[in-house]
Records
---
Amino acid sequence: MDTHPSSPPRHLALLGLTGVGKTTIGRLLSEHLSRPFLDSDELIENAHGSTGRRIASAAGVAELHRIERDATLAMLGHPEPAVIGVPASAVDDAATRSALARLATCIWLTAPTQRLAERLERQDHRRPLDAADLDELLAAREGHYASLARLVVATGDGTPEALAGEIVAALRELGIS
C-alpha cells in the first residue's frame, strides 16, 4: 500500500476501474469509520430508474458518463463526511477531478484487468468489458487516478474485510479517521 501525504479533506473517495471493489470495500469502510456510504451505482439507479448498463445501451456511453459525472459532484456535495464509491469514468472530466482533489481524500483501488473482466461477467448491472477494454481504460485513466490518490490499494488478493482494515490503519497513520 502506497501513501502520498497532504492535508485531509472531508470525504473519502474510492477510485478505480469498474469491478475493483469500490462498493464492497466502501460499505466496510463506512462501518469502520461511522460515515455514510454513498454509492454511485445506487444513486444513478434511484435517480434514473435504470442501471448503468441499461443507460449505456439505450442512451450511449457518453450519456452514462455525463450522468456518472453529475452523480459524483452530487455525492461530493453531501453535507457530512462520507465514504464515496466514485464511478470509474468520473476522473475523465477535469472539473470533477478538481472537485475530488478539493473535497476528498482519494483512495485508488487496483486489480489485474483480467480479474476485473471475470468479475464483470458475473454482474448484470454493469457494462460488459473484457480485459483488453479494461487495459485501454486503465491506460487512459491511470495518470488521473495516480495524481488524485493519497493511498493506492491492490484489491486482487485478500478479503474485502482485510483490505478495509488495511485502509483504516493507513488512514489513521495519515491522521484521517
Note: The first helix runs from residue 22 to 33.
---
Amino acid sequence: MVLRAEIAIEANSLAGVASAPKRYNACCVCGWTYKGGRLKSDRRPSTERIFVQGNEAIGWGAVSAGCLHFFGYPITPQNETTEWFARELPKRGGVFVQSESETGSINMLYGAAAAGVRAMTSTSSPGWGLMLETMSHLTNAELPCVVVLVQRGGPGMGTTQHAQMDYFSTCWGGGQGGYKNIVFAPASVQETADLVQLAFYLADKYRNPVIVLTDGILGQMREPLEVRTIDFGPLPEKDWALRGTAHQKDGRRQILVCTSGHATVPYPTYLELLDHLDRKYLQMRSEVRHETYRAEDAELLIVAYGYVARVSEEAVNMARAEGLKVGLLRPITLWPFPHEVIREKAARGCKFLVVEDSLGQMIEDVKIAVQGRVEAHLLGVLARHLPTAMGMILPDRVFEEIRSLI
C-alpha cells in the first residue's frame, strides 16, 4: 500500500473563489513571541524541515499563525497536541492552561477570543460533545477562534481509535440554533499545519469559529513538515475586542453578548442579528475548496476525506491500472461542501462512491448534490479489514467495491 507523504492542492480547489487566499504565497518564517506586551514575529527566514506527528503539526501551524493561547484537556487520540502546547508555548511567552474538562476549555477559549487574541483548543469526539453548547455561543457572539477535533470511534465513549463519525455535529451544527462554521479536513501532516493557519485567518476574516477536523490516523502518523508562515493578506482591526477602556480608541466600554435583548449595539433586534448572520454565512460559502485526482474522464468518482481519501487515491491507481475510469474528489472544506462540482459530474452521468469511516454521514451531502440524477453508493466502517477498533478501510477493499460498480 502506497500512501503519499504530501498532497498538493490543485488549482481547481480555488477555482471560482475570488476571495480565496493564494495558498503558496508563503514566506518561511517562524518564531512568534511576545515583545513589549505585543505579538510580534522576528521574521527570520527558515527552511526548517522536521519529521513530526499530525497532532504536533497542529501546534506548529498554530504558532506559525501567531497563536500563543491554548486551553485544553487531555483525551486520546490527540494527547500529543495538548502535550506540545504545554511544552512549547511557555518557551514563546504564550499561555497554556490545562482545564478541568472540555467544558472548561471551550469557555476559557470564549474569554480569550473576546479579548481579541488568537486562541484555540483541541479535543476528540467525547470531549467535542461537551463543547457544542459554547460553540453555538461563540458563533452568536462572533468570536474568532480555532477548534481542532481529532475524531475517534463512537457513539458514546466508543473507542480510543480512529474513525470519521463527527461529520454531522461539525458540518450541520451540533449545538443549538442552526449556526455555521467553516470545517477543514486535512489529509496530510503538512496540510494539517497549513489549514490550521488558514483557519485562523478565516476565523478573523469572518469573526466566526473555524473547525479543523482530523482523525486518529492522521494525528498519530509521522511525515515531513516544512515549518512556514503563510501570508494570506491583511485583516480588519479587532476594534470590537474587550481590552479595557484604557486600550479603546474612544475610551468607551465594550460589551459582547451571546444572546439577544441585552445590548443596544450592534444589532438592536433579534432579526437584525439573524439577518447579519445569514449574510455572513452566504459569504462564507465562497470559501469552498476541494481537490480532484484523475477525475477528468471518470465514470465513477470516489468522494472521501481525511485518511480515507489517501486510501482511496491508491484504490484509484489500482483501478486505472486495469483500465477502469475512476477518479477521486476530496473535499478540503466539509462545510461549505463542494456540492456544485458533484452536481456537474452527476449531470454528465458519473456514478459516485462515498468512502467514509462511519455508518454514513458525508454521503447525505453527496445525495443532496446529485439531486437523484445518479446513485450515490456508500462504503463505510463495516468494510474495515478487522472487526476490532484497530481496523481500517484499506485500498484493496475500496478497489473491490469499485469493480462491483463498474
Note: The radius of gyration is 21 Å.
---
Amino acid sequence: MRKPLEGAKRISGPYPYYGASGIVDYVDGYLFDEELILLSEDGANITDRNYPVCFLASGKYWVNNHAHVLRTKQGNENNFICNSLERKDYTQYNTGMAMPKLNKETCKKIPILCPGFEEQKKIGDYFRSLDNLITLHQHKQNNLKNILKYIEITLIITKEAAKMPELEKIIEEKLIDQLIYGDSQWTYRKDLKTEEDLWKNFKYILEQNNKDRLNGESLSESEFEQVKNQLQFSSFYKAGEWLVGENGKVQVHVQRDTERLHLVVMNHEHIAGGSSVYEVINQYSALKNEEDDTLPAKLTYIRGNIFAIEDMAVKDAVCAVADVYVSCEKKKEVGTVKSENNDGYSVSYAVEQSDGQTVEELIRKKAYEAASTYLLPTGWLSRKVGCCCVNKCNDNCL
C-alpha cells in the first residue's frame, strides 16, 4: 500500500523514499521489502520522458502516491517487464488534462508481449547491461562540462570569500550541489553525521546486496564485528590491494555457525548501475591546532563506488592508481625505468629504491605520480590528507 509523507513529517533515515521518477529522499521507515516494479502515476515526465517512467526497487523502501507499485505474475521476470514498460509511448495512455496522468484502469490495459521466462531473463539482463553502458558514456560526455563548471565555481568562490574557513565551507556546499545536481545517481545523506551512523549505513547496504547469501537474515553484532575487523588496514597500499578484489569483486568473509559466508562489498561490473550506491555526506572533525586545540575543521566524506563517480578525472585517477598496484604486484622489477599509458596519458617512473626507502613508500610515490596527472587540473590535490608517514612522503600523499 502506497502512502505519501509530507516533507515536514519525514524523519531522515536509511530507507529510500520513492516518487514518480525515482528516489526523492531517505526516511526512517519502509512499506515494502521485496523487488517490485514502480511505474509513474502522474507528472510531466510521463510525456516529456526526461527521466525513467518505470524502474525497479528492491530491499526495504517507501513509495509515495505518485508511483504505481507492480508485482509480476509467476513465470515473468521483473527486469524484462520493467524494460518493456519503460520503452512504451505513454502519450496514448495519458488520462490527465493539465497534468499528464496514468490511472490504474488504463495501466491494466497496456499490452506487453511476454516470451518464456528464460528468454525474458536473457533479454532483461541484456537491457540492464546496455543501460549501464549508456550511463557510463553519458558520464564521459559530461566530464568536460563538469570540469569547466568546477573551474567557474572556484573562480566565483575565490572572489566571494577571503577567509579560508568560509572558503572551505562554500567549496564543500558547491561540491555537494554539483554531485547531486540534475539527473545524478548521487544522494546527499545529511542524516549521517557520526562514525556509528556510517557503520550502520554500511551494514544496511551490505545486507541488502547480499540477501541471498545471508538467507534474508541480518548480520548479528558479532558477525558485523568480523566485517569491521577485516576493514582495518596497516597502510594505504594494503587497502588498495583489497579494493582491487578478485575477479572484479571485493568481498568480506563471515563465519556463521559452521558456514563461511562470502559477502560482496563492491562489484566492478556494476559500474554506474547494478548494486552500486553513491552517497555524499558532510561532517565535522576536530583537528588539533598548535595554537588552538578546539579549532574545528570541515571535511567532506564521499562513500560509494569511486569507479562510477560523475567526475571522470577522479575515476581515471583511481584507475591509474589501481594499475600501478596491479603492475607492481605482477612485475616486481627493480633497477629500470618503466613507462605506462593510461587513457592517453603517459606516466613514467623509476622503480629503483632510494637509500632507506621501503617498497611500500616507493609504490606510494608511483601511485601519487599516476594520480596527479588527472587530479592536478581539478584542484583536488590542494586539499591533501596526510598519511601516517607524511614527514617521509612529503607531497606523495593524496
Note: The chain has eleven helices and 14 strands.
---
Amino acid sequence: MAHRTAFSYYGGKGMLASRYPAPQHKTIIEPFAGGAAYSLKYYKHDVFLNDLNPKTYQIWQFILSSNALKYIKKIPIKPTKGINVNDIADEIDAPVGLRYILQSACNVGVMGTEKNCKSITKIGAVKWKHNTINKLLYWWPKLRHWQITNKDYSKINNEIATWFIDPPYNNDAGNLYKANNINYNNLANWCLNRNGFIIVCENYGAKWLPFIKTVEAPGVQSKYRKTKRCEGVFYKINDKQVIDDMIRPQFPESEGQRERKKIIDDEVYWEKENEKYRRSSTIKQ
C-alpha cells in the first residue's frame, strides 16, 4: 500500500500534493519541510529538506539514518489507548527522532505546533500501526538519497531547482507552528529571487505575494477554520530552459517549426517573456 506521508504533521500537504505542478528540475528544495508531502510524491528526485524546528529536523534525521530499520521493527503493533508514549520509546530505546514520530502518532495533526501529546488518544490507537510501522517501513528504503538541514531558510544556497516553499501561513492557524517568527516581506523577496521553478503555498487571501486560488474544501468548524479551507499558490519561473520548454508546445510542429526555433532563440523575444514573468511576480503594495 502506498502512503502519501511519512508521519502525521500539522498543516501537511498529503491531500493536496497532486494539486501542485510537477517539478521542472531533478532537484527539489523544501525550505520549510514539515512533512514534505510534495517531495514524497516525487521521492526519486534529489531532495534537499530544511526545517528550523528541531523536532522536525530530528524526525527526518531518523528516517534518513542507516540504522532506522532496527528500531522500526521494535515498535509495538497495538498499544493501549491512554498509555504514555514515552514509556514505549523508553522500552525500545528509541532515538530522539523516533520518539517524536511516536508522539506525532498519539494524536494526528499536532506535530510541528507547540502542543505536546504524550498519551495515546482513541484515534491514535486505532491508526497507530498505519501511522508508525507501516509508513516508516514503506518510506525508509526509498529516501536514503535525501538530505536534511536545520537552519534559517535565508541561509540555503540558491541553487537551480524546483523550490516548494510552504511556510507557516500568515494567519492565526500559522501562528500555532513552533517556528513562526517570519517577516513576510523579506520572505517574499527571497522567494522571488530563487533560481529555477518556484512554488509558494499560502492561505488564499494573503497579500505578501499575488496568490491564486488552488482548492477550496470544507474546513473544520473551529477558531481557525470557520467554514472552508481555501488554499492559495504563487508560481514563478527563473529558468530560461523551463520557459522555453513551456513555450515550444504552443507552436505547430509542421509548418511553423522553423519559425518556432527562430522565436525561441531570439534574445529580444526572451527578454520580453522574462519581463512578463517579472511583472507578474511583483508584490502588490
Note: The beta strands are 27-30, 46-50, 147-149, 161-165, 196-203, 212-218, 228-238.
